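Exercise 7. Given the components listed, write out the predicted structure of the assembled complex. Treat all entries as one system.
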Amino acid sequence: GAVVSQHPSRVICKSGTSVKIECRSLDFQATTMFWYRQFPKQSLMLMATSNEGSKATYEQGVEKDKFLINHASLTLSTLTVTSAHPEDSSFYICSAWTGVGNTIYFGEGSWLTVV
Amino acid sequence: GIQVEQSPPDLILQEGANSTLRCNFSDSVNNLQWFHQNPWGQLINLFYIPSGTKQNGRLSATTVATERYSLLYISSSQTTDSGVYFCAVDYKLSFGAGTTVTVRA
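Answer.
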């Protein structure tokens, strides 16, 4: 089946620094990718939708200047958490859609800890 | 947006038992999917089921779109079935709060 890879799987960064998380579709072209965050023992909350070559669409309440999303190619989307704070610590997970059919494939997720 | 409610929030099963998880949604949907999140966070797509019934091994799902609910059935549960089961609807996948299933040997 289709594979979506996220990197890094775990990252620890210092407060005030920025960290980039990559989401790659390994064996298909993803016209649309989605970014979610999940706090411990909670559900997934959609942060933004990114389409290749255009600006991401952010959900209400998500700071677009803090969570920079770039979908530069049909196989890569990146999420950069800028000026990270401890409250940004969370599990971030991406998903990708081919644009055909209805199945959406999820990456393995990335655990971010800001100290 | 569409509201998604899952029940029960927690479920403890003895190995071999059967169970039913429910997902209610507040409006008509074109997309409904069930996922299993394992203890390491990986989300596995179980079913795409906006309507009708599907079966895959010991798992099956039924969605009654006119009544805005979906059911996920787990039969002969195994310890590997433990984890959180999510129902998600619509194009952007609005997730319910999930049902945490613990299967004890």
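Discussion: The interface with chain A takes residues 31, 33, 35, 40-43, 45, 48, 50, 86, 88, 92-98 of chain B (CB under 8 Å). Chain B is about 0% helix and 55% strand.
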